[in-house]
Design goal:
Blueprint lengths: L1 E3 L5 E5 L11 E8 L2 E7 L3 E3 L2 E3 L6 H13 L1 E14 L5 E13 L10 E4 L15 H13 L5
Parallel strand pairs: 3-8
Antiparallel strand pairs: 1-2, 2-7, 3-4, 3-6, 4-5, 4-9, 7-8
Protein name: 8-oxo-dGTP diphosphatase
Family: Belongs to the Nudix hydrolase family.
Keywords: Hydrolase, Magnesium
């Protein structure tokens, strides 16, 4: 799927691996905890799913688990690859999308954001980051819902 993000950059989204020549070095984790969506409150962008950059020597999965913890205090119980997308910005990059379930939330004074936010429904209004409001994220959320993984 090809689309433009809310910054005006062309993006491509695939639900199968191996479509891009640039290796993914960014992660995004669509998470649930106790039947609710697990978001983080980014201090600048607003509400969004946890994610970030892969550190040197770190796998994509390890980065995803670390980012969820650093941004929300959530401990990932299980994690699965879902998709990847390319953003053709001035410096193009590829991001891998995972789905995860969380076993518990811990209180940490070292969070990189304003912390975890739980939501029953995702009404993607202006409180949400631009990352959450583009057509790529709508497609990702539709794929998650169609999977029936979290039918609770």
């Amino acid at each position: 799927m090809k689309y433009k993000d809310l910054n005006g950059f062309t993006c491509e989204l695939f639900f199968e691996p191996g479509h891009f020549s640039i290796a993914s070095r960014h992660v995004l984790v669509v998470s649930k905890f106790q039947g609710q969506w697990l978001l983080t409150d980014h201090l600048v962008r607003g509400l969004e799913f946890p994610g970030g950059k892969v550190e040197a020597g770190e796998s994509l999965t390890a980065a995803a688990i670390r980012e969820v913890y650093e941004e929300t205090g959530a401990v990932v119980e299980s994690i699965e690859w879902l998709a990847e997308y390319m953003v053709y910005s001035e410096k193009p990059f590829c991001k891998t999308v995972f789905t995860a379930t969380v076993s518990r939330l811990e209180t940490s004074p070292l969070l990189e954001t304003a912390g975890a936010v739980m939501a029953d429904e995702l009404e993607l209004d202006d409180r949400f980051s631009f990352l959450m409001r583009d057509s790529g994220m709508k497609e990702i959320l539709e794929k998650v819902k169609q999977s029936g993984k979290w039918s609770d």
